[in-house]
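To close the chapter, one final illustration. This time we ask the reader to focus less on the individual chains and more on the assembly as a whole: which components sit near each other, and how the overall shape emerges from the parts.
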Amino acid sequence: MTDKDREIARAIWNGKIPIQFIVDPANPRDALFIEVPRYSFLPLITPQLITHVDQLQASEPHSIWYEYDGEPLKWHYPVGLLYDIVTRMRPNSAAQQLPWRILVHNENFPETVLLRNPGIETIQDMYMSMIKEADFLRHGSTKKVMNLSKQDQTQLWHALSTERYDDHWNVNQHILDDRGVPLRSVPIRLYLPNQCPVIQDTASFTNDEGNLMTLGDVLKTIVPGLIVTGDTTTAPDFVVVSHGIELSLHTPIRWASDHLSYPDNFLHIIICRPIPSSSSPSL
Amino acid sequence: MSQASPSSEALSSPITTADSTSTTADDDKDVEHGKTPPAQSLDELVNTLKTKDTSKVIVRFAAIGNAPILKQSYYKITASNKFQTVIQFLRKELRYQGSDPLFLYINSAFSPAPDEIVSNLYKCFGTGGHLIINYCTTAAWG
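The assembled structure is written out below.
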């Protein structure tokens, strides 16, 4: 990884979303403003809310859940992914105004919509499972993660929850080290509009001739209906977003996987309609 | 013979073909690899993708440690189900109470989130025509 590339990975890590956590909509002054890292998870915020908001002080962390505009927020998704989903999947959404206004609830947990038992231990376990799943896709086994010392495994999560990029990278670079292991599939998940189920499938880093694939090639492999072969002349009616950035379909997939993945080593890619008269930056 | 549940049905005979094409009959899907249908609008595409995948995935349950063993190890499960369905099905088959610990793994490697979709797991991690699910009563692979 060159210095320039490293800077990009670090900038992605440093991305934050200003959030206004509202406990009582009738009394908006009872709100807490926090800048939350895009890679972080809502259960990591819960203890801060319980400490600082009087109405929540008697609440069990497991009973707390979050809602935006009538939609319970999946606590096991990274915050940046949640934000991109709600802002990109519904154009003209007020969510495009910052801070992002999230309602906090401490009763009537929507068990049919959200996974139960949000908590720091649960999300830590889920994060470790995700990073193993990504390792399995990339290398065909979870050896890279399992060969880490217990201390290094713990450091991965600890670095994430304490916002230390270098501590995370120092361990994660061993997981992403491909020496001696053939690369298998790109760890990637696709999110589409209209409550489409999440799409995950195998796609190689290289084609049959051994040439590196682009993001567009990979999307074509996974969702053949999305892109016409070789058609670069007509503007597609969709954009591809991650970390709030519209990505070029020509982005080399290996580079994207190494620099634009979330700390679980998955590329979380949103495919959505372009925002009319978009002013958002693109890479 | 195990009781069939609404979302997952027990096979009435041992699997004779371990071929993934036993995900039968549903030839109306155009999301299969290798085909290049014309580009669709995003809305059309999403509608196609949202069509319930009624094909079946064969899962093979393998007990680890002192976990109780099922009467049969192969089951068919509808591909569009979430992994949660697999967890609930296994708990029911084992007559496990809500508080009894039970850990499920794919390929002796990792635990998928309960909202991951069976067809995705099969496409990514299926081997030899089925999806191997290991289960145990204590955490085995962290």
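The radius of gyration of chain B is 16 Å. DSSP finds three helices and five strands in chain B. With these observations in hand, you are ready for the problems at the end of the chapter.
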